[in-house]
Protein: Glycoside hydrolase family 29 N-terminal domain-containing protein
Amino acid sequence: MQLSAQTPPVRSDYQRGWRRMLVDMEIPGWEQRFLSEFDAGAMADLYARAGLTSVMFACKSLAGYCFWPAQVGPEHPGTAGRDVVGQTVAALAERGIAACAYYSVIFDNWAHEHDPDWRLEPVGGRRRTGTTYDRHALCCPNSPGYRDYVRGQIADLYGRYDVGAAFCDMSFWPAVCGCRHCRDRCRSEIGAELPATIDWTDATWCAFAAARERWIAEFQGLVTDAMRAARPGIAVHHNFALGPVHWVQGVPFAVTEHSDFLGGDLYGDATEQLVVTKLMGNLSRSRPVEFMSFGTVSYSEHVRLKTAERMRSQALAATAESSACMFIDGIDPLGTANARLYDRVGATFDPVTAFEPHLGGEPVEDVAVYFSDASKVDFGENGAPLAERNVRADSYPHLEAVRGACRALQRAHVPFGVLTRRQLGELERWRVLVLPNVVRMDAEEVAAVSAYVRAGGRVYASGYSSLVETRGVRHDDFMLGDVFGVELAGEEVGRVAYATPATERMRALTDPQRELSWDAPRGSLAGGLLRLRPRAGAVTQTLATLSLPYGHPHLGDMDDREWASVHCSPPWTDTGEPAIVRARFGAGETIYSAHDVERQQFDVNERLFAGLVGDLLGDAWTVRCETRPDVWVSVFDHADRRTRRIALLNSPAALVPRTTLRIRPPVGARFEAVQELPSGRPLAFETEADGTARVTLGTLPELTMVAARWGGEQA
Ligand SMILES: [Zn+2]
Structure:
């Protein structure tokens, strides 16, 4: 029995601080000068110099070495006899900096060498990548011996030192493991041999994929329980960075039960930070969540620093979203660090400090984008031998659609959140739900969405949403077909297709284009072009019809006449079949698009998607903003302060001379004052007939906060 899921989340001093750093200590032990100059006091001085509130410090390296006098496992030869962990805990406490003790699993060269029975054995053999990744040696979380080792080491470490917070890194599958322990569990739990072929329409494959996600969640639970057993009251979090990543890494969103809050290190663009921060915000058992990233340009770069502007943008974006921000540094082989980076981190965090007392609150989200952890797959992999495809892909169709949807909503300044199945029981809190090409859904999700719309909810859905059941069943029609108001007539190969607007509103949304282009996604079941037909008895309006190029489905070449223009494939035949349909269902409404228009980052796609979602939202909005599209608008309610707080992020800084904000008060309330934060400077505002406050802002700095306070005694 696992304890971790049953206890309420623990709040630590570490989590309460907003400005954080971690220093990785990934130095091996075979050179006697390695880490010889490490000085815990000098490092703590650097942390203080950077103005940090919270520090995560390494207790163990991925090479397997411990930085304390370990009773279980090897002590690092370069620090042996110095108890770096103990010295660091003391040095941080002296400086009033909250501490979190970093531990790591699965990636452990020493343990891999120590006992062959502990080894992770990738199906198809270990792939060499020609990168530093080849330096890692891996252990299997299903190996009973390795699990005992981890338990013993955690008991030793966390039992010994008085720390309020613990972090566990690397608890994911580096690859699909085919060791005897994994094969035994597969046989006993799903009643079949470990499948040799990837197939998301095969029940055995899907059962195996679900099992290995369960095993990672169970392993995270084992780690959390061991940490809590060693030090009752400790706050634990696991790195969630791999949660949104391709299925090979096997981290289900259910792992959130084993973390008191979520954090993850990210290396992508600003949209990734926005999507993952919002995902963690609604998934985490407590807030704030933690955005982590290196101060260098990547985790595999030791010298080259990010620009000061990039670091500031990341820190201000975290602040705009009310998440904590961590920069990561890597220790030099001798154990020293580049002090100038800590100066830069300090300068980066400096503008954040004044906002900190105003952060937190409950996110206000008019629109919800659904992120499905069952959909971290690509149907293009179906039929591939596992031994040849046992490596994670950079992306997958659902993620691309989620990213596109979030980016379009951000640019339209619609307050939105990212939901998961954790919110299935409370969907009515959101006015509009977006299902962005949710390629696998289960009966519980289908029932929840159906009930939500029947009761008055609004849904935008696209692509394969609800066609394939998570247990591995490809249905002939959408499971939500009655809700969408259409039937699936078939699927075929189509490289290019077009949606031709059928209403004035659609023509306005796509103007000055006459049609909307659609390119087939990378992975598909049977070609990716979905053909629809009206559903008998459904109350629908066709918003756009499917148009096809001359010669469809042939691309055409010099030997045939299956093309109409030599460089491109213009629309030729309008099929008259629905491509985008609006339907009434119960008291609610849906828009279903066979084309995942939100996936592609083109101006017209963004405009059309945001326009359709805006039509579903209707007059039920909370905040509207006219400003430059790049500006992020995030809204939080602080009921205890009777305040609705709006953050406007304009970073990297651009000239935005004028911004208009319209803010609606909660039902029955009326705004009495609008202030700029953190200055408290009153802002002039007009009140519209329905109580909406209208505020006009002058030139935007990189981060602006506006607080609208409604009437009554302030708590
Ligand atoms: Zn294994």
